[in-house]
Write a structure and sequence with these properties.
The chain is about 0% helix and about 60% strand. The chain is mainly β and about 300 residues long. The radius of gyration is 18 Å and the shape is globular. About 35% of the residues are buried.
Length: about 300
């Protein structure tokens, strides 16, 4: 694909590692998701580096053949090395930078198969508001075209082609400091959206954008309707986003799970409660014109003990 533009405030070096801050929860993280609706192959992955806690987070989620494959570990970070080729890999999972802000490779190897996709940016990269709530200091996102395959040990090959989203952030990451957030990353043929709405300390923050071949437009507001399951976890089933951008254009997008297994829940305990995150790979529907897209819908909730 043709080289896309990054935000002028971003430098090629921002694709690499930044000097860690002194805050205990300082974190630098790379995230990807991918959706091949035709073949019903989807998933996401993240590698987080938390140097002041001497650890990394390695996560890979794949939905294929109506099943979930999940890999998660937090290896001890014995030595911080300013090198993405070292820090963004372990024995199974690796990210490889080909061209800054344009092309990456995501690789995962396990005893049963090898997964490899190439990410090629399709719209300009959008830089979010700095110091957004307590979730990040700097954060950018972009939409991309995904191509690749899964090679099984028996010789079977499943091709992958579709769209996906990437983001990167660095700075403080205090999940437990947010009461609730709802995020969305939408992929349609001619446009893409990335957004988040945070509720914390009696405040509400909205940040996000709409991207097309002509550039990116920040969003002004988003109202969100959620229908939860009646299960014990109150799992979000349907999320509808009512978006207004800064040019007053509106979008009404409904997100539903691709499959009951195209979701995972992550929870972390804290001394005064716990925080849970639902990551949902979804079919998106533009309710204004009926167009079908794909993407990710994310819900974070914090419960604090009395």
């Amino acid at each position: 694909m043709n080289q896309k533009e990054k935000n002028n405030a971003l430098k090629d070096a921002d694709e690499l590692l930044h000097k860690p801050g002194d805050i205990q929860k300082w974190r630098e993280a790379y995230y990807w998701n991918w959706i091949d609706l035709e073949n019903k192959i989807t998933g996401c992955s993240t590698i987080g580096i938390i140097p002041n806690e001497q650890r990394r987070e390695m996560f890979f989620f794949l939905f294929v053949d109506n099943k979930r494959i999940i890999y998660y570990r937090e290896p001890t970070l014995h030595e911080y090395v300013d090198d993405v080729d070292v820090m963004l890999r372990d024995k199974r999972l690796a990210y490889k930078l080909i061209t800054p802000f344009q092309k990456w490779e995501i690789i995962y190897k396990c005893p049963k198969f090898e997964f490899e996709i190439t990410w090629d940016t399709r719209f300009n990269t959008h830089l979010f508001k700095k110091d957004f709530s307590v979730a990040w200091h700097t954060h950018f996102e972009s939409s991309g075209v995904i191509t690749g395959e899964i090679k099984y040990k028996d010789g079977t090959v499943k091709k992958i082609q579709g769209y996906g989203q990437r983001d990167k952030s660095w700075g403080i990451r205090d999940w437990h400091g947010v009461d609730h957030w709802i995020a969305g990353q939408f992929q349609f043929k001619d446009w893409n959206c990335g957004l988040r709405k945070d509720f914390y300390q009696n405040k509400i923050d909205v940040s996000g954008y709409i991207a097309t071949k002509d550039g990116t437009i920040p969003i002004r507001d988003v109202e969100i309707d959620i229908i939860d399951d009646d299960d014990k976890l109150k799992t979000p089933l349907i999320t509808t986003y009512h978006i207004t951008d800064e040019q007053d254009k509106t979008y009404n997008i409904e997100a539903r799970l691709i499959n009951k297994n195209s979701i995972f829940r992550f929870a972390r305990q804290f001394p005064d409660g716990y925080t849970e995150l639902f990551e949902e790979m979804v079919i998106m529907k533009d309710k204004d014109n009926g167009e079908i897209g794909s993407g990710m819908s994310e819900h974070l909730r914090t419960e604090k003990y009395e």
